[in-house]
User: Fold this.
Amino acid sequence: MNARFNARAVLFDLDGTLLDTIGDLAEAANRMLAELGRPLRPLAEVHSFVGKGLPNLVRRCLTENASATEAEIEAAIGVFRRHYTTVNGLGTRIYPGILETLAEMRARKLKLAVVTNKAGDFTRPLLAHMGIAHHFEAVVSGDTLPVKKPDPAMLFHACELLGVPAEEALMIGDSANDALAARAAGMPVLLVTYGYSEGMPVDTIECDGLLSNALQALDHIVAA
Assistant:
């Protein structure tokens, strides 16, 4: 039987939860690597690097089975940002069930927010490009605060913006970052099985339920 929660707000991760962005991230990463004269990375490898924000993605692209100085990594971040600005959203797709889930949650008067480790310069344009920005009353990006998930501060900040206590919110994500942040914030967390999860099997991550389709989240929320 599904665990059910009296949630007034739902916080969503972005990459790997709402949107499949891996094609654009891999394209930007490989454009960066080519410009820097580094070996390109296969999509599956970039896939496993996603989750802790842009600087971590760039660092892993440069240092996984290789070496790079901090100065080289810092310079590469700027190169990646330039290329990602060009391709952000071009190959991104909305996961099945997301549009219907967001519409139904809004019909139920739930307050919705995005909480992502992606930088704000990329988050808001992407939400607008994909036509889903209007669903969310708050967006907390990877550079909104000095910390990123799994720090719970991002979730607390989203709840403050929504005017809902953390204990009355539900987190939906795809990785241990989301689960750890939610646990630390004292809120339940559901994980999608189709996301990125940094190469970690999602069914090994402690959470309150697994979703093969976002629509299944509706079964975990007690109707008002």
Notes: The two ends are 20 Å apart (CA to CA). The first strand starts at residue 9 and ends at 12.
